[in-house]
Amino acid sequence: MVGFCGIDCLECTAYKATIKGDEKGLEQMAETFGKGVLGPLDWVCLGCSPQNRHLLATYCSTCKIRLCATAKGVSNCAECETFERCATLQDFMKTESETLARTMGWLRASYLKRHGQPA
Length: 119
Known about the structure:
Helix content: 40-55%
Largest sheet: none
Shape: elongated
């Protein structure tokens, strides 16, 4: 399962902890990213896809990339007409792994090919 931005939800600590019933994992997310404001239950998450929007980690519910993608009605940013020009997405990908950028590049190229556009 891939998020709008290309992150693999199956590798996310919050997602894995939710699926496995791992309280320690949720507590770890709260300690690492909650900054004393978000507790373990705020990290319960089934991924950022539209069908899971009501079971999304509190932190992720404010993600600008997810909010933009859902407003535009795309299932992944690779489908968006502004993919290459989107500063929010491009800046995010620079802070993540090379793998994420490569995956998003492949998704974009595949999408463009299937829609008869040059990659």
